[in-house]
Amino acid sequence: MKKLKKVKSVLLLWLVAYPLWLVSVFCFLIFLLFGFVRIHNWKLMQFWPKRLIIISNHPSMWEPVLLNYLFLLRSFVLPFKFIPYSTPDLSNYNKWYWELVKERFIFVPRHKPEVIRSAFRRMAQLLKKGKILIIFPEGGRTATNKENNWHYSKLGHRLRPLKEGAAKLALETDSEILIVWVNGADKALPVGHFWPKFWKRTDIYIGPTIKLTGNFHDNNDLKKGTDEITKSLLELADTTGLQQKTENLQN
């Protein structure tokens, strides 16, 4: 039974998911060509990262799609190395059609600690094998935060308080962290919408690659690492200019 399931998974990957990925690459190139998506400082990315966690702010459900193409050219040569693994909340991806790409997903149910621990172990295993992981440590879209506990940058950009899981994962696996900031995705795919308004420009800013130091068992080191990630994100955000006032996108 397990062998049959494995064969089914491999067939889905190569006969359905990979061709669909090629189609999505074509769409992404069109977005780049027409300026719907702009990637700034692409040259700052490492050519061949050993273990890498991509950490970004989370304004919408659009940037989890776009960030998969950061290593686009290298993905053609080594797709299993350079197509990142995503870490979405299971409740957002429980439809049948996500079966096609779930091999690149590590589902993180936010309210099931025992499942979260299992997902964390799988993330650590993949990183130790040299894979690339995308994490949004805000734990939800920025605009859906209902608490008045924001972290603000000098120019008015904001973040929800970050979860410590990203710092713990980086320390445990000795992984580097690529800092990314996204502007405009909340307009391209507002909260509560399914189809993106892809003609609304989204800017992706590549920032520094940082390396945390400390012991992943030490709570003080985890807090220090999380604070360093927060600081790096907000500093990168300020390089994009003043935060424009937008409507509250909460449901």
Please describe the topology of this protein.
Layout: H1 2-33, E1 37-40, E2 52-56, H2 63-66, H3 72-77, H4 79-82, H5 113-128, E3 132-135, E4 151-152, E5 158-159, H6 165-173, E6 176-183, H7 185-188, E7 202-210, H8 219-238
Parallel strand pairs: 1-7, 2-3, 2-6
Antiparallel strand pairs: 4-5, 6-7
Helix pairs in contact: 5-6, 6-8
> What is the tally of beta strands?
7
Shape: globular
Structural class: alpha/beta
Number of helices: 8
Characterization of the model:
The longest helix is centred in the first third of the chain and has 32 residues, at 2-33. The chain has a five-stranded mixed beta sheet. Strands 4-5 form a two-stranded antiparallel sheet. 32% of the residues are buried. It is globular, with a radius of gyration of 18 Å. The protein has a single domain (2-238), classed as Glycerol-3-phosphate (1)-acyltransferase (3-Layer(aba) Sandwich), CATH 3.40.1130. Helix 5 (113-128) runs parallel beside helix 6 (165-173) and helix 6 (165-173) packs across helix 8. The protein has helices spanning 2-33, 63-66, 72-77, 79-82, 113-128, 165-173, 185-188, 219-238, and strands spanning 37-40, 52-56, 132-135, 151-152, 158-159, 176-183, 202-210. By secondary structure, it is α/β, with parallel strands linked by helices.
